[in-house]
């Protein structure tokens, strides 16, 4: 099983997810959007599977700092460029288990995914 956790290392929710995975003994690889960068093709895949409404974090400071025009024009055709320019706007954590994508962290969800 290949498990990759995507996020930003200083995000509290990502920290909780990493701690859960470690305590459950799950072998995973962590990729930091900021430190490791984003692969545009991978981002396009995430957008096609999850959709821009799910993938864009509208609760964070990065979203609030955008202009009203940027917020108003967010859509399927503009999301990739916006997220590449602002990787902190990707909802996190994003968990990839053998190609299956899961957004966010809830202990009960992770327990069900890993039969804990």
TrEMBL record:
Q: Which SUPFAM superfamilies match?
A: Thioredoxin-like
Extent of the signal sequence: none
Q: Which InterPro entries match?
A: Arsenate_reductase-like (IPR006660), Thioredoxin-like_sf (IPR036249), Tscrpt_reg_Spx/MgsR (IPR006504)
Pfam families, sorted: ArsC
Its family remark reads:
Belongs to the ArsC family.
Q: What is this protein called?
A: ArsC family reductase
**What organism is listed for this UniProt entry?**
Oceanimonas smirnovii
């Amino acid at each position: 099983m290949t498990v990759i956790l995507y996020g930003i290392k200083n995000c509290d929710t990502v920290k909780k997810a990493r701690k859960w995975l470690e305590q459950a003994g799950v072998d995973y690889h962590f990729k930091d959007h900021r430190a490791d960068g984003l692969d545009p093709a991978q981002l396009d895949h995430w957008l096609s599977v999850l959709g821009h409404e799910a993938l864009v974090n509208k609760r964070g400071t990065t979203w609030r700092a955008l202009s009203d025009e940027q917020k108003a024009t967010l859509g399927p055709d503009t999301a990739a460029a916006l997220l590449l320019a602002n990787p902190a706007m990707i909802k996190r954590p994003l968990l990839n288990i053998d190609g299956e994508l899961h957004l966010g962290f809830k202990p009960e969800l992770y327990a069900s995914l890993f039969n804990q």
